[in-house]
TrEMBL record:
It comes from the Bacteria. Belongs to the ArsC family. InterPro entries: Arsenate_reductase, Arsenate_reductase-like, Thioredoxin-like_sf. Pfam families: ArsC. This is Arsenate reductase. It comes from Phyllobacterium bourgognense.
Length: 140
């Protein structure tokens, strides 16, 4: 089974998500979306398959969101996608794709819902939050 992550190595949530995928014994296809952004149709498909609206898939923090006036509720999905294409940093991250589905993995442990393999070892996020216990079970 292949797993693909649309990854930003500068993002802690993205790094934690990648680590959880690897903790399941999976080496995913890694797409650094700031260097290789998804094509418009691919982005629309990711958003749709993740069960999100285009607006829910936009990242506000650390982006030109406010300067571009993207908080305007009258903007259409196509206008928002135009902005995401022009400024890939506006694409929220990380999107993860597996045969079990697509998720915007925020928080990172959302990825566990679509991984085909169980976690192989305990896991804590970079901030120390325990996500997987010593028995490989998800901590709720």
């Amino acid at each position: 089974m292949t797993v693909t992550i649309y990854h930003n190595p500068s993002c802690g949530t993205s790094r934690n998500t990648l680590a959880l995928i690897r903790n399941a014994g999976i080496e995913p296809t890694i797409i650094e979306y700031l260097k290789s952004p998804p094509a418009r149709q691919e982005l629309k498909d990711l958003i749709r398959r993740a069960g999100l609206t285009v607006r829910e898939a936009i990242r506000e923090k650390g982006t030109p969101y406010a300067e571009l006036g993207l908080d305007n509720p009258s903007l259409t999905d196509e206008q928002l996608l135009d902005a995401m294409e022009a400024h890939p940093v506006l694409i929220n991250r990380p999107f993860v794709v597996s045969e079990l589905g697509v998720r915007l993995s925020r928080p990172s442990e959302v990825v566990l819902d679509i991984l085909p393999n169980p976690q192989k070892a305990p896991f804590a996020k970079e901030d120390g939050e325990v996500v997987i216990d010593a028995e490989g079970k998800r901590v709720v």
